[in-house]
Specification:
This protein is of the alpha/beta class. It folds into two domains: about 5-155, Glucose Oxidase, domain 1 (3-Layer(bba) Sandwich), CATH 3.50.30; about 165-380, Class I glutamine amidotransferase (GATase) domain (Rossmann fold). It contains eleven helices and 19 strands. The strands form three sheets. It has a ten-stranded mixed sheet with strand order 10-12-11-13-14-19-18-17-15-16, sandwiched between helices. A seven-stranded mixed β-barrel has the order 1-2-8-6-4-3-9, surrounded by four helices. The longest helix has 13 residues, at about 370-380. It is globular. Glutamine binds near residues 243, 314 and 315. Glutamine binds next to strand 16.
């Protein structure tokens, strides 16, 4: 191949639905990707972000400018595949240098057939998304056609109304054997298992299951559409509702099951999509946010203790704090914009958190929420 041909094979564009065009360099697979473009402000954790199933149908731009310097490895996966539709960055590190690195970011994206684009003015892009709201976009690699890319971005239906939890979850129930956070991959403490947690997989991140394993839980993971009756047949001490992609409102199967499970007074803990579903099952409503929360430095206040936690966040929908039923108490709020971050049922052993107490990436300030879940199971036992 001539130098010119190989150079042109490397060119890529990002076109937003509003027609804004960014020209850059391809760093991943060939082809094109269409999705909702969101910005994440975390300075680390690109591999965890890419493999978080909550990013299904989304293209992620990272505001941190220098990405790829620690490469990728098999331990930092938050699921078995890359779910983000595409990656947009400012600058790809020329060298991956870390004792845990097994593969470069570029090689990793290509192997997972995910489109990526570098050399983009991600500050300008982020300003557009902040000012006008998250918007659909298209990354195109190879044959570049700006009009076609804009048309594809405009045709993308958007995440409002998209029921994705049932698309990304496991096919069959399984027992978690992926290890614990403290002890590492492949290690669990089954002999010490005290509580049987049934975890609804709506697109669950592995670190949630690792943190439950750390706390002596035996975990059975079940698909998103598992009925409440099938979950009850497993005789759980507690029920976990996972994070996941898309809009919570159309997930009627989950909302119906959670309503039934709430009636049984079994401890329930929800994270992110699981939080939104618990709220809706309790009578609340969700709404689409302007550009959402995606980052690892969001201050959230615990209203009871007044303590401020720095948290990891990844959501584009939120529970509407203006339309809460009487059975819900607000436990946490975002100090960035005052939106609702945590709730507790006043009449049931059930609570949930909008951010990501499991981090990966991010700080572990909110990990005590896992301990609270254990306390609820203890109290019930
Ligand atoms: N991380 C999540 O669970 C995200 C929940 C939901 N898909 C949202 O964007 O708000």
């Amino acid at each position: 191949m001539s130098i010119l041909a190989s150079q042109s094979a490397k060119r890529a564009i990002l076109v937003l639905a509003d027609g804004t065009v960014f020209r850059g360099t391809a760093i991943g697979a060939e082809g094109s990707a269409v999705g909702e473009v969101v910005f994440n402000t975390a300075m680390t954790g690109y591999q965890e972000i890419l493999t978080d199933p909550s990013y299904t149908e989304q293209i992620v731009t990272l505001t941190y400018p220098h990405i790829g310097n620690t490469g990728t490895n098999s331990e930092d996966q938050e699921s078995d595949q890359v779910w983000a539709k595409g990656l947009i960055i400012r600058d790809l590190a020329m060298k991956a240098s870390n004792f845990r690195s097994e593969e470069t970011l570029s090689g990793y994206l290509q192997r997972h057939n995910v489109v990526g684009i570098a050399d983009i003015d991600t500050r300008r892009l982020t300003r557009i998304l902040r000012e006008n709201g998250a918007q659909n976009g298209c990354i195109m690699v190879g044959e570049l056609d700006e009009n076609k890319a804009q048309e594809l971005a405009q045709k993308f239906p958007g995440l409002k109304g998209m029921d994705l939890a049932k698309e990304v979850c496991c096919e069959n129930p399984y027992e978690w054997s992926g290890g614990s956070w403290q002890l590492g991959e492949g290690h669990t403490k089954p002999e010490q298992s005290q509580y049987h947690v049934v975890a609804y997989d709506y697109g669950c991140k592995h670190n949630i299951l690792r943190l439950l394993a750390d706390r002596n839980c035996k975990i059975t993971v079940v698909p998103a559409q598992t009925s409440a009756e099938d979950v009850l047949a497993l005789n759980p001490d507690g029920i976990f509702l996972s994070n996941g992609p898309g809009d919570p409102e159309p997930c009627d199967y989950a909302i119906t099951a959670i309503k039934t499970l709430l009636d049984k007074d079994i401890p329930i803990f929800g994270i992110c999509l699981g939080h939104q579903l618990l709220a809706i099952a309790s009578g609340a409503q969700s709404m689409k946010m302007k550009f959402g929360h995606h980052g690892a430095n969001h201050p959230v206040q615990d209203l009871k203790t007044k303590r401020v936690m720095i948290t990891s966040q990844n959501h584009g929908f939120a529970v509407d704090e203006k339309q809460l039923p009487d059975n819900l108490e607000v436990t946490h709020v975002s100090l960035f914009d005052g939106t609702l971050q945590g709730i507790r049922r006043k009449d049931k052993p059930a609570f949930s958190f909008q951010g990501h107490p499991e981090a990966s990436p991010g700080p572990h300030d909110a990990s005590e929420l896992f301990d609270h879940f254990i306390e609820l199971m203890q109290a019930k036992a």
